[in-house]
Amino acid sequence: MHQASIAYQTQQIMTAPPVKLVAMLYERAIRALRDSLRAIDAGNVELRFQNIEKASEIIVHLSGTLDTERGGEVAANLSRLYVFMLRRLSEVNLRNDAQAARDVIGLLEPLAESWRELARGAPEASSTLSPIKPSAQPRGLAVSA
Question: Which member of 9, 88, 97, 117 has the lowest number of beta carbons within 10 Å of its beta carbon?
Answer without folding.
Answer: 117
